[in-house]
Amino acid sequence: MRRIPLAVLYSELSLTKNNFSPDMPSDQFGLVALGGDLSVDILIEAYSKGVFPWYDELPIKWYSPSERLVLYPDHFYATRTFKKWCLHEGRKLIYSADSAFSQVIYNCAQATRKGQDGGTWIKDEMISAYKELHNLGIAHSVEIWNKKPEYRSTQHDLIQKASMTDSNRRAIAVSPAECDLIGGLYGVSLGRMFFGESMFSTHTNASKLALWLLCHFLKRLQFTMIDCQVANDHLMSLGASVLVKRDFLSALDKSNRYPTLKGSWARLWEAELGTELSPALMPM
Predict the structure, then answer these.
(1) For the chain: N or C, fewer Cβ within 10 A?
(2) Structural domain of residue 271, as residue ranges?
(3) pTM, 2 dp
(4) How far is CA 243 from its chain centroid?
């Protein structure tokens, strides 16, 4: 990426607050500032102003592109193939939120991505920063688990489970010792917006299922949208659309007026969605 002089940018970041503003000038790639650090205060301020970091080398690059990819929770597009997979395979999996944040972000860092040339922008410093946000109840993860063969239910168990009430079914806790993590995602929650950072999948459709469940969860909590940052074909095929910067910042400003749902989402997630796909959660 072409380097541009700092004079063209808003400023070189200080290590204090008030580094960002919605009308910061940018280059053609959306780069608005260089420098600063990944401290909690700077990260929270950045997201609240529509800016996100890209950490591949120092100084840290901060972006607010002219077009923003977003996914409205009720706009997730489930293909016929995905619906069929959920019915036959997805219902055998277990899901959770905030049960394995560290595992999710490490897996995202190790995932091979098209055009990445063997590198990753999720370096140790990024991992440490978002783990700190998670400890503060601001960054969250969604996990998709596959039960290890020795712990899988017998046909008799499945019949018994099918006869359970929803409340009993939701009481089944995820036990990481009995499961393999096969997919997930993580991001930051502020106000009524979720800022998606990354996702991974080691099994077909696992990350897609995580995103579908996140949309369902956020819709129940009246979140407005998921910020997906930069347009890509995969997310657009799932229903994401592009907003111009002005419209995105307007939606962000409205979202910021609501209190942030801080703390672990694990219990709330289980209360709202359970731990396994029920008929009510199957994509239609």
Answers:
(1) C
(2) 70-281
(3) 0.85
(4) 18
